[in-house]
């Protein structure tokens, strides 16, 4: 039989170099908030596989629903007919929508595909071409989604040219203006809305602009919630100019932020909403949700995909939605969120920590950096140790916990399972505080 070490070595040789990894090990088993590795380590997972397994790994009801569906119908091709779990899922999602106008559903596999679908829908329905994205955004890795991704050059380096017709406005994150973390949201909001107005006057005419796309809590770009007044301002500009607002809830959706969807904090109505990740708790499934008035403009046959809305993934998503309701997940998110902020709060006095922020269980700690942006950045701290976020995350890993960084800045992000126990949350926070203590002396 092959040893764990020899299998890892095989993987290192034969799995594409294009994929980076946190740990050189095989993930053998997942159960709740824990992952067991092939070398025997049991790891507390505060990543949820990048905000996917929101109900923990292998939630028994979700896995059972998928197993049952496997014996009934695996592949019910959406261009051949409806299948039961597809329609049942829509029934479950309708009452969860952040606005009752969102009543037309199209399921796909990945978040990136949902973004591709949203771009096509926005272009075709509006008859306009350009899409405005925001600085720091992450929308995926396929060519259209990649063109909208502005969080790290490595995602696109060497892969250009990307989809044309994309314009970038700043996101209300203090870094984008070299302002301190204490900058009032109202100031960031007016800076960003002004820049957007300028973009519409100087670069992309409103009559050429199909949509503005954004994450209500920017994910890979730093885990920053957009201020509600900024989102309301976007909605006003969109209404004034006939531009569609695409809200990407792929990472922030499904209770992660303490509401069904993060956009609810602002009360803003999305024209198109994209979802994935937490939708099916680990099964590949994404969705493009809009109002019928918009999707009725699509020609039959213009959308589709071999595996789009797979029956097993949809059955898992139905069980996931039921568990959200039956297992009081929202209450747990809000109770654990308060505790998480409570554990992190004392770190604010540490001069190496710039900011602690987030909503629900989508929370970030940002460290100072000696090299950040440019020598002109007033936040640059030449005395801060280098690469604090990844060093702290690595130390947490050595102590038995997976924690991810974001793609830009010195940020670690907490995304424990939404049903994480009080004890496991405390355990993870203790590990983190210890790691910070050891790395930032
Ligand atoms: N949008 C957002 C906000 C995301 O966080 C991600 C994935 N991190 C995507 C889109 C792309 O999803 P996928 O990786 O499933 O293609």
Description:
The protein has 441 residues and is an alpha/beta fold. The protein folds into two domains: 164 residues, Aspartate Aminotransferase, domain 1 (Alpha-Beta Complex); 265 residues, Type I PLP-dependent aspartate aminotransferase-like (Major domain) (Aspartate Aminotransferase, domain 2, 3-Layer(aba) Sandwich). 35% of the residues lie in helices and 16% in strands. It has 13 helices and 17 strands. The strands form four sheets. The protein has a seven-stranded mixed β-sheet, sandwiched between helices. Strands 1-2-3-15 form a four-stranded mixed β-sheet. Strand 1 and strand 2 form a beta hairpin. It is globular, with a radius of gyration of 22 Å. The relative contact order is 0.15. The site of 4'-deoxy-4'-aminopyridoxal-5'-phosphate (PMP) has 15 residues, from helix 5. 4'-deoxy-4'-aminopyridoxal-5'-phosphate (PMP) binds next to helix 5.
How many helices in DSSP terms? Answer: 13
CATH superfamily of the largest domain: Type I PLP-dependent aspartate aminotransferase-like (Major domain)
| Ligand kinds | 4'-deoxy-4'-aminopyridoxal-5'-phosphate
The secondary-structure element order is HEEEHHHEHEHEHEEEHEEEHHHEEHEEEH
The CATH topology assignment of the largest domain is: Aspartate Aminotransferase, domain 2
Query: What is the CATH class designation of the largest domain?
Result: Alpha Beta
Low-confidence stretches: none
Mean pLDDT: 96
How large a portion of the residues is in β-strands, by DSSP E?
15-25%
As for the number of domains, it is: 2
Percentage of residues assigned to helices: 25-40%
Terminal CA distance:
45 Å
Numbering strands along the chain, what is their spatial order in the largest sheet? 4-12-11-10-7-5-6
User: How many E-type strands?
Assistant: 17
Oligomeric organization of the protein chains: single chain
């Amino acid at each position: 039989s092959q040893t764990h070490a020899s299998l890892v070595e095989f993987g290192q040789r034969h799995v594409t170099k294009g994929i980076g990894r946190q740990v050189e090990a095989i993930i053998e088993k997942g159960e709740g908030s824990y992952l067991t590795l092939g070398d025997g380590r049991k790891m507390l997972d505060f990543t949820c596989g990048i905000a996917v397994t929101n109900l923990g790994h292998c939630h028994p009801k979700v896995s059972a629903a998928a197993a049952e569906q496997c014996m009934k119908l695996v592949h019910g091709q959406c261009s051949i007919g409806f299948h039961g779990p597809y329609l049942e899922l829509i029934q479950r999602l309708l009452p969860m929508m952040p606005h009752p106008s969102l009543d037309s559903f199209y399921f796909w596999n990945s978040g990136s595909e949902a973004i591709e679908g949203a771009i096509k829908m926005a272009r075709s329905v509006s008859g306009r071409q350009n899409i405005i994205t925001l600085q720091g955004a992450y929308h995926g890795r396929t060519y259209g989604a990649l063109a909208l991704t502005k969080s790290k050059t490595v995602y696109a380096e060497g892969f250009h040219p990307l989809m044309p017709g994309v314009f970038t406005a700043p996101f209300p994150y203090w870094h984008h203006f070299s302002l301190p973390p204490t900058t009032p949201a109202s100031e960031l909001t007016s800076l960003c809305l002004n820049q957007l107005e300028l973009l519409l006057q100087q670069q992309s005419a409103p009559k050429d602009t199909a949509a503005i796309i954004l994450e209500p809590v920017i994910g890979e770009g730093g885990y920053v919630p957009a201020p509600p007044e900024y989102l309301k301002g976007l909605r006003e500009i969109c209404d004034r100019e006939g531009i569609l607002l695409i809200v990407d809830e792929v990472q922030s959706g499904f209770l992660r932020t303490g509401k069904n969807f993060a956009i609810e904090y602002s009360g803003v109505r999305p024209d198109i909403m994209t979802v994935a990740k937490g939708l099916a708790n680990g099964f590949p499934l994404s969705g493009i949700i809009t109002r019928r008035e918009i999707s009725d403009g699509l020609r039959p046959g213009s959308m589709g995909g071999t595996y789009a809305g797979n029956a097993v993934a949809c059955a898992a998503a139905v069980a996931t939605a039921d568990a959200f309701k039956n297992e009081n997940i929202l209450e747990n998110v809000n109770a654990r969120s308060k505790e998480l902020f409570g554990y992190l709060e004392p770190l604010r006095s540490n001069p190496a920590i710039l900011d602690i922020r987030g909503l629900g269980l989508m929370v970030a700690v940002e460290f100072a950096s000696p090299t950040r942006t440019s020598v002109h950045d007033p936040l640059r701290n030449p005395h801060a140790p280098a690469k604090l976020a990844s060093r702290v995350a690595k130390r947490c890993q050595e102590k038995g916990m997976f924690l991810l960084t974001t793609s830009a800045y010195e940020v670690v992000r907490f995304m424990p399972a939404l049903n994480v126990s009080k004890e496991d949350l405390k355990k993870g926070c203790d590990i983190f505080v210890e790691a910070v203590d050891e790395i930032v002396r």
